[in-house]
Amino acid sequence: MEAPSETNNANPSTVTTKRNSKTKGKNNDFEFCKVCKLNHNQGRRHNYFPNHIKSLSSFLSRFQSKISDVRFFLKNPSLLRPELASRNRFWCVFCDSDVTEHGSSFACEKAIAHLASVDHLKNLKTFMWKHGGGMERVDRFQVSEADLAKYEQKCISMKNEGASEQSRGALIGPSNDIHNELKFDYIDNFDRNHIGSRNSSFPNGVLPLQNHTNEKYQVSQSDLSGGAASNTSSYDNKSLLLASNAKRSNNVQGKSSLTEGHLHNGLVYSEKREANGEVSSAGLLKLTQISSTVHNVDVGNVHSGAPPPWFDTTNRIHLDPAPKPGTKMDPVTKTVKSKLNPKRVGAAWAEKRKLEMEMERRGVLLTNRFDANWLPNFGRVWQSGSRKESLKEFAVEAKKPPKDEIESDSSVQLQPYISKRMRREANG
Amino acid sequence: MSYLLKTLKKKEEVDSMIRDTIDKLLVLRFGRSSDSVCLQLDDILSKSEREVSKFASIGLVDVDSEEIQVYTKYFDITLIPSTVFFFNAHHMKMDSGSADHTKWVGAFHRKQDFIDVVEEIFRGAMKGKLIVNCPLPPERIPKFQLLYKDM
Q: What is the greatest pairwise CA distance in chain B?
């Protein structure tokens, strides 16, 4: 009895002190969680709440997607038009600052610089520490120095190339008319090299495809002659290809027939070859081959609005005759199969049936095309031996009943046994 | 009670249900919805259907309908309710200490008993076993007598 009373006495004071300390802590430390957009007094505990973790991950993934856009420009620096500079801005959630692109000549230049800055790294680390993001994720939200150095180098080289150009604004995104003009232009005055130098300023990834590709030939050629191009040769072939396609489609679209288009192409090439010598001729050879394979117009391409080739594959699946079950498994069923025990009851049957059902759904196979007399595998009560035997037995039984009835009918006329002597006596 | 579960009245329906239930245990109750023991069983089935829905599906078969006679003969159904189990169109047996291993005859005492039985059979099937032992104690297994060809 003593012990409980003691505890009772002791308890109130401790409880009150505890409560005091708790309430003190609670009242004092209201803070705003940027991630949850919420005022709370939980202190560090708040970081482990599921809601916080959820919103933190969405918060970070949102910013991650933004950064991935920036990273694209980090890899492929591209020129920024001055009139678009004001529209390009980048809100850094870690530093709570807006990075504008005023006065930068490359897309996301300032943003990249910001992401690589020491301040950003510091803010990022404090954020991660405060909100429990995990320090190993820091690398995802900043730009490393090596990347920045590479980027800067690329920018400088681009700038140098661009220095020889006249107007940058006019070069980007000319309309279709200009494109046509240019096309004829360069056929006529082929050896205008400055167009080429202008084009080479586009990196691999950011080609404004259709419109500029016409000039690509010259571009690369001039580059080669200048000796400045390291990667242009491969890039060149690609662009040639694109150009040929674009041109062809243009011709198809327009009033002029396809043959004209080819003629036109041929003209171009011949001119090319003359002008550029053996280096480009390899690429040109390739090009002619490609254009010959592309000959059938019915297929169409991106420019003529035809569906991409991979759409056809899906169609083919529909048209394919039913593959034999077991020979080819769908990837889906394969994964499922791997999860379930391969030795489970009726595993083979299940796989087969799954394929069938898949095809039935697609309309390749008829539904319910199984035999009306189909019966499942079943082991009967009085049956010994394999289950197939019970099916056989049942089949026999199913045939029997009429016979049984006949037999029973005939056997109904039972007669008492009468011995010969008795018969004789009866007769006599 | 039978309106809570899918009632099959044709052989094709039973066929397609057996064929289309893949990697799940199929529980087929043969009986008639007016029978009192059937009602008891149906009550248990309908209540536990949702709980076992991840690994089992349940169908009721009306033994009175003409087209089902094939199955009642094939499955040797003489007493109702009889419950037959299938997995991937393979018949699953259970040794419950009674005369008939091929089916469960009678109702279950409670819902949990049914769930236990279904789970045991499903686990056995996933391990490749065609026959399993009944997880229930003998006092909760309904007793019945089976006659060989009416003798």
A: 42
